[in-house]
Amino acid sequence: MQKTGNKPLTLFFILSSLATTELHALGEHETDIGLRARYTDVSEGDTEGRAASLLLRLDWEAQWSPNWSTLLEYDFAETWFQDEHRDGLRFNNKPLVPDVPGDEINQAFVNWRSGQWQVRVGRQRIELANQRFVSSVSFWQNDQTYDALRLRYAFLSNTSLQYIHINNVNRFWGEDAGTSLRRSDINYDALGGIRPAPARGDHEHGTHLLHLEIKEWDYSQILAWHYDIENETAAPLSNTTSGLGYRFDYKASTLKYMIQADLAIQEREALGNNSIPYHRIEAGVGYDSLEIHLSQESLGSDEGAAFIAPLGSVNDFQGWADVFFITPADGVVDNRLQIDWRFNPFRLDARYHTFESSETGESFGKEFDVDFIWKPTDEQNVMLRLSDFRADSERFDDYKSLSLSWSYNL
Description:
The chain has one helix at about 5-25, and strands at about 30-45, 45-65, 70-80, 100-115, 115-125, 145-155, 160-170, 200-215, 220-230, 240-250, 255-265, 275-285, 290-300, 300, 305, 330-345, 345-355, 365-375, 380-390, 400-410. By secondary structure, it is mainly beta. About 5% of the residues lie in helices and about 55% in strands. The strands form two sheets. It has an 18-stranded antiparallel β-barrel. It has a two-stranded antiparallel ribbon with strand order 14-15.
């Protein structure tokens, strides 16, 4: 994101008002505004910190004809207590809270749809399947979007095949996380003023994604994917991943049964010709408004090269403390118990994780996560989130965070 003052923001509102007037004349349109405020207390090892942030999001969606539509989305974020946390853009000796300040065009695309075909070109969110491998990582104030060409073909009763070409990933570290570090950064001298490529906010890509979803049965779904991820900015993050998935969801009277299973194999050519395994299996049962899930996810390793998902969401899967944002070289196995209880307008989502090495079985640690969510209206959401990681290995630090957020129409 590029940091702005009040003058550019005022100019933006003026231009947006003019643009909205023009859209009234040229086609059907919808304008939305979203707000999200968040305050976080955090400790990492023996260091404590805090952060506060506010996101403003403006959307203009226009339907120009039965086939053509466009979307323009602008984000502006401000943060406070910047000396009391690091955010991935600025580094200090404080705990990490990756909400960065600034503004940018978050989405800007043209969409064409006709019959079974859909084509989308421009900056866009891409969220495939359960978002484990390709995600918007939307929990953070600056989510991840893609400059991409996206083709979707629907056939049979309810089956779709997508091809996506990505030439740039706008990561949640923000556009200001460029090649050069600030002189005030604690890493400036050690790194010669150059930000490491994996920590930059924009990654140039020559990536190709194929994603198939087959939904021809009442209770079952089959997934297949082949992702050729070529990261031209950070070559070690490049990989080729192929996988199969299965989903089962059945409700009988007041009981509900759920199964998810994913298998994948990955090659990381920059680190040698590896065949790195991945699996995830989850089983759940629900009664009325209560659901209980058990799952195991294993990111394997081969000769020191670990399975990675650089475009996916770690936050949604391996704990909200994000301890395993970088997969350990010996892989990681996550065993998780989740209890999800909905009692309108409230929701309680509690998760307990145990983490260990996929190669040696060494215990990495345990994590307890809780979301308490209140939806006073359809447009508003209040969430209290607790995350508590307790390390069993000297390779990791304890991490605790407590955050309170309020969002409107996000």
